[in-house]
């Protein structure tokens, strides 16, 4: 796992977002075991308490679950994963639309730009 940390955001949030991204893109599948606190802390060279907080938040959001004596696993609940994916997509859209509006584009121009880009990207 490689994460370049941003000094402007708490590390535990960055790890959470990274893990959510791994889950919604299918790199971490439902039921997959995630690394232990110690393993991940060593790999990322950060304080284990930071990783512990990350995992606690992921558990609170029911994204991962702890199985007594076996470790932590990605939730098997497909609806939870779909909800996370939609939330992440909404964040991306919010940032994109805000950025385009700050550049002075109107709604119709934003829609046209998106449609044009999709068409360009889907051409063989």
UniProtKB/TrEMBL annotation:
<feature type="domain" description="HTH gntR-type">
    <location>
        <begin position="9"/>
        <end position="77"/>
    </location>
</feature>
<protein>
    <submittedName>
        <fullName>GntR family transcriptional regulator</fullName>
    </submittedName>
</protein>
<dbReference type="InterPro" id="IPR036388">
    <property type="entry name" value="WH-like_DNA-bd_sf"/>
</dbReference>
<keyword id="KW-0238">DNA-binding</keyword>
<dbReference type="GO" id="GO:0003677">
    <property type="term" value="F:DNA binding"/>
</dbReference>
<dbReference type="InterPro" id="IPR000524">
    <property type="entry name" value="Tscrpt_reg_HTH_GntR"/>
</dbReference>
<keyword id="KW-0804">Transcription</keyword>
<dbReference type="GO" id="GO:0003700">
    <property type="term" value="F:DNA-binding transcription factor activity"/>
</dbReference>
<keyword id="KW-0805">Transcription regulation</keyword>
<dbReference type="Pfam" id="PF00392">
    <property type="entry name" value="GntR"/>
</dbReference>
<dbReference type="InterPro" id="IPR036390">
    <property type="entry name" value="WH_DNA-bd_sf"/>
</dbReference>
